[in-house]
Automatic annotation (TrEMBL):
Family stated for the protein in its record: Belongs to the anion channel-forming bestrophin (TC 1.A.46) family.
Transmembrane regions: 20-43, 49-67, 210-229, 235-253
Name the UniProt record assigns to this protein: Bestrophin
Keywords on record: Cell membrane, Ion transport, Membrane, Transmembrane, Transmembrane helix, Transport
Primary localisation category: membrane
The keyword Lipid metabolism belongs to this UniProt entry's keyword annotation: no
Length: 311
């Protein structure tokens, strides 16, 4: 129980990853303005205007803030689901390649390992693309030097890597190391990877409508400006403190939506893409250490309609 209390208190006081540093200047400005209005009221100036509280109904502002936050979280959660699909598809496709592709020569195993590393490279390249970062050393250890240099010239590196993976699968089919049903199943998983890439690009390249974002900020500012005039009669010199608390809540909710609407960055509130890519690489490396079942293709030479060997 004590640990839970300490963890709760630690979360309350934590600044890293919170919106406090971002909204603090605005909150302080609203608080100073509230103190200024309370000073004017103290000197009997006509600043007590409770009717201003109805200029922007709080329920309207609240609904706009909730819609803003929910829309941003939908983008965040959709991004997480897409990366979950990438993770699962890489696991399934790497497992099928490792188990299903026949090894007839020693170099065939090396080709399979290279194909599995291409799957890891796809995830890493997708991460770099979504963050608008250049091709870096994370990819250099996963692909050949010639391909590494070629990726630096590509506009969409993950798409090029997907082409290399499909080219490998097609080559194995033509060498009779895969039958048509296995090939189709693997291509379907590869299509899912490309679809997830497109879904992430859609989130990245579809920002919140500018007019909506501007209008919400304008309403927030007007509400916080009018707020001291409606509170000064009841709270006097405490008006500034009350305005700070209310503006902190409103600006904080609005800023949370801004923080999570693009979930692919490097901020503490973004998706842990680095950790996901590391996990994908570890899964593939573990798979490579396993010994797949070896078929006796000479005795199990069953032909399908296209003349490809089936196990």
């Amino acid at each position: 129980m004590n640990r839970k209390r300490q963890s709760w208190l630690k979360a309350v006081l934590r600044l890293q990853g919170s919106v406090v540093p971002i909204v603090l200047p605005r909150v302080i400005g609203c608080g100073v303005f509230g103190i200024f209005v309370s000073i004017l009221y103290h000197f009997r100036l006509p600043v007590d205007l409770p009717t201003l509280s109805s200029v922007i109904p709080s329920i309207v502002l609240g609904l706009l803030l909730v819609f803003r936050t929910n829309t941003a979280y939908d983008r965040f959660w959709e991004g997480r689901k897409l990366w979950g699909n990438i993770n699962n598809s890489v696991r399934n496709l790497s497992r099928q390649i490792w188990v299903s592709v026949e090894e007839r020569e020693p170099k065939d195993k090396n080709a399979k390992i290279s194909a599995l590393k291409l799957l890891v490279a796809f995830a890493v390249a997708t991460k770099l693309l979504l963050r608008s970062e250049p091709i870096d050393n994370d990819l250099e250890g996963l692909i050949s030097q010639s391909r590494y240099q070629k990726l630096k010239t590509m506009n969409n590196p993950p798409l090029e890597i997907a082409f290399w993976i499909e080219d490998y699968l097609q080559e194995q089919y033509e060498k009779n190391c895969l039958h048509i049903y296995q090939l189709n199943a693997m291509k379907e998983l590869l299509n899912i990877l490309v679809d997830c890439l497109g879904g992430c690009e859609r989130i990245l390249r579809t920002p919140m409508p500018l007019a909506y974002a501007i209008h919400l900020k304008q309403l927030l500012l007007l509400y916080c400006i009018f707020l001291p005039f409606s509170l000064v009669r009841d709270f006097g010199f405490f008006t500034g403190i009350i305005v700070v608390l209310i503006s902190f809540a409103l600006f904080g909710i609005e800023e949370m939506g801004v923080e999570i609407e693009n979930p692919f960055g490097n901020d503490p509130n973004d998706l842990p893409l680095d950790a996901i890519c590391v996990n994908i690489q570890r899964n593939v490396e573990d798979l490579i250490t396993l010994t797949p079942y070896v078929r006796d293709w000479k005795t199990a030479n069953v032909e399908d309609g296209s003349g490809k060997a089936l196990s």
